[in-house]
Amino acid sequence: MPLTTIDNKVALIVVDLQKGVLTLPAAHPVDQIITRSAELARAFRARTFPVVLVNVIGSAPGRTDASQSARTTGHSRPTPPPQWADLADELDPQPDDHRITKKTWGAFHNTSLHKELGVTQVFLTGVATSIGVESTARSAYEHGYHVVLVTDAMTDVDAQAHQHSVERIFPRLGETSTTEEVIALLKESAEVSEKKE
Questions:
Q1: How many structural domains comprise the chain?
Q2: In a domain, 1, yes or no
Q3: Contact 87/134 with Cβ under 8 angstroms?
Q4: What is the pLDDT of residues 95-148, one digit of tens each?
Q5: Looking at the record, which segments are called Disordered (predicted)?
Q6: Is residue 4 part of a domain?
Q7: For all residues of the chain together, what is the average pLDDT?
Q8: 178: region left, alpha or beta (phi > 0 left; psi from -120 to 50 alpha)
Q9: Is 34 part of a structural domain of the chain?
Q10: Which of 129-154 are b and which e, b meaning 16 or more Cβ less than 10 Å from the residue's Cβ?
């Protein structure tokens, strides 16, 4: 379902646009994803709406096929380089931005994100569409937020996984939109607010 309205209390959540993750292969040009997310961040900041910048520094402790395979082959996860978790410079983090560091796929689990927001609607961008973004969207939906997924500002290592999330999962969690549409609606809602004052 396309974006219909912007609430009075909204936040942008940018998931895992960090230097280490952005070196991985992607289904869409990563520079475009970063550029669009940065455009959205500037637009949200201009309206004094919260911008939440999320990075990941670990993984959940549970056993998975991937972790089991690493143990049986003797390959352990390499220690990430020092700047691996640093956010993409283009996001231009600001002092008022909320920073969330997570160790799981979703940005709500075991973090302060839900307590910090104080909003009714969240807009999501980032990587990977089918992992960090989708997990965060599912949790946002379960917390009762109006969820908007900005599909041209996200990507995945797997094009089919991205497409599945966008076409099959996201319509069940919220509304979908593009960067251009969101920015246009932000401007429109700002003009309406100005006329009311």
A1: 1
A2: no
A3: no
A4: 999 999 998 889 988 787 877 788 999 999 999 999 999 999 999 999 999 999
A5: 62-85
A6: no
A7: 88
A8: beta
A9: yes
A10: bbbbbbbbbbbbbeeebbbbbbbbbb
CA distances (Å), 6 to each of 38, 39, 61, 79, 130, in order?
19, 17, 37, 42, 25
Backbone angles phi, psi at 127, to 5 degrees: -135, 155
Q: Which two tokens stand for residue 173?
A: 């969690």
Q: Is-contact 132 16, C-beta < 8 A? A: yes
φ, ψ for residue 63, nearest 5 deg: -75, 135
What was the pLDDT predicted at 132? 95
Q: CATH number, domain at 117?
A: 3.40.50.850
- Residue range 63-82, pLDDT digits in tens: 555 554 444 545 455 566 67
Alpha-carbon torsion angle 118, 119, 123, 127, nearest 10: 20
